[in-house]
Amino acid sequence: MIQSAQPFGHYLAVPSMLEWKEQGVVCELRTAYPAGVESSMHLMLSEPRRLRIMLRADCVQDVHVTADSKDIAGIEADWSDESADDRIRLSNDGTFIVMEGMFQDGDCIDWIVRSPFHAEALPGDPTRVVLLYGNVLLAAAGSDANIPESCQNNRSLAEHAHRQNGTDALRFLLRRDGFVDGHNAPLQLKPVYAVGEETYSAYFNVDESHPWIPEEFVPVASGEN
After folding, report:
1. Residue 117, pLDDT score
2. Average pLDDT, stretch 214-223?
3. Does 58 score more than 70 pLDDT?
């Protein structure tokens, strides 16, 4: 896991492999990031071995250990209790989620990277913000980029934005209930890297008293200033 430079302390999971030759242990980290926030660690062991594996509790949302396609232990990062089966115990001390026990070849640890919605204002202008899901910059399809003032507050933003069901891609709807001047239709958000040849906005206006009004681009005629 590599910590980003974002102020919220978000993390990225980077596909990688660790080989511990002396113990006959190979750990392969797989992730679909940034297309998804799910990650998994696949264990390849020469023989069953007692291991203690730790994840930062503030960088994961929930953790599950599976063996032979069966969920044998799991814990949510916001909980502080314990979960156990016959050979692996999970605990959360508030700083680390600890998985300890006899691991076998083929065991897998799955987790979801904690990726809260948050808004970041442009330097010098708090009424212009960008929206992020974890470390992923989001853009809205179309030319309407007005969002409620309350979305400056990250808790309110999380209540307005919802991940769309039925897709593994990062696609969201941002509700704008009660927005002035008829800007009530939800915005469709997606990662800026997924934007194609289409009109989009990556900067948003939270000044409800002065909503942005899209204007068509009019090219200057040849020879005019």
Report:
1. 84
2. 71
3. yes
